[in-house]
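User: Structure tokens for both sequences below?

Assistant:
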Amino acid sequence: MRTLVALWRILRVIGMVARGLWLAGLVMPRLAAAGRHAIVQRWSVKMLRCLGVELRVAGAAHPGAVLMVANHVSWLDIPALHASAPQVRFVSKSDIAHWPLLGTLARAGGTLFIERERKRDALRVVHEVADALRAADAVAVFPEGTTGAGYGVLPFHANLLQAAISTSTIVQPVVLRYSEPGLPVSVAAQYIADTTLVESLMKVCRARGLVVDVRFLAPEPVGEHDRRALAERLRERVAAELAALDQAA
């Protein structure tokens, strides 16, 4: 039965990807920012529903220029954040730009791509993120640099936080947590080790009662922190909120 449910969900996902490509190529280029954001949010909400994922949101994204800093669990993080903060642009690994279909959708959403293997590329992306913040954009980064299992928070890399410091932009921690019945931390949502995108998609579509909690914590000014101190402070806030959610489950 779960296999049939998964196949039905995958068919719906394929339909949503096709619709997303049509919207990205023909509709969104003609719209102002507010119209594009509305489309991104509707599409992301529907995509989560097609995958069988319930979205729960607490708090709200800071309006205007903001650097959001989130823990990273899955490729689901992108639609989950876009469903709750459609104006946000992401910094993602350059591999995604070359993914069939999904790379096109990422570019349409204004994603900034970074080659994580090249240390010098981080400086280029810091400048691009700073330019986006100066233009009053919202940008989200995953400073762990990779996906974790969802039980805790990996060390935060500080490089991209320099963009907020250089532009004196508000930073906002965001907590992403996946759960399923009987499991306070979802196994189905994990996208770690050698798991492929197809394998992960099948795990998600086979899951029963998968929930993603998106929690926007209180934003704060960068103050006098250097980037490493700022990274550690933000990590502590995200980790504390994640631990509180686990204890309450």
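Moving on to the next sequence.
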Amino acid sequence: MFAEVNGIRIHYEVEGEGRPLILLHGNGEDMSIFDVAVEELKDFFKVVTVDSRGHGSSQAPEEYHYADMAEDVHGLITELGLVRPVLFGYSDGGIAGLILASEHPDDLLRLAVGGANTNPSAVDWSGFDVDPEDPLQRLMLEEPHITKADLRAIRVPTLVIAGEFDAVDRSDTEFIAGSIPHGHMYIVPDADHGSYVEHSVILPRLLKDWLI
């Protein structure tokens, strides 16, 4: 299914019934990383998976900014008539989730982010082959710039997740969780940046434990 939001044609899918739960993937991926999660969660939630702008089957813009990705989600929530959904965002999706919850504090019931960072310097890039000429990958090298004031504007309960061996500095994960008024941190043992998210049962079981 497709929706025209924020000047971009966004691809999304919906499975299940109940409280809406939006899942946002990371840079260079698409909604398919949540295939296992959707199977685990669709009996408990209306699961909405989204291809971010320029990913999967969604339209590509001329340039990329996390603030625009957050506005895409805000527009999709409005377009689909989702009432106070829960949102989980992974990596770039988590950054967009933080911005969304900061800029639109009444959109969500709860927020969970995994592997999110507040600035590019908080990431150990040694394990990634990042091409600065690729506009999507350049986004990760130039943004985000999320401040403590931005995080303090997030009013909803927020679960901040990272892997034990995440590429995001632990201090930044702690900063995010500690700055959000109702923030909570969970470190996934023996996990790296995405092993507990991509095609994994760990993420949906974490979310069910937190939400149900």
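User: Anything stand out in the second?

Assistant: The radius of gyration is 15 Å.
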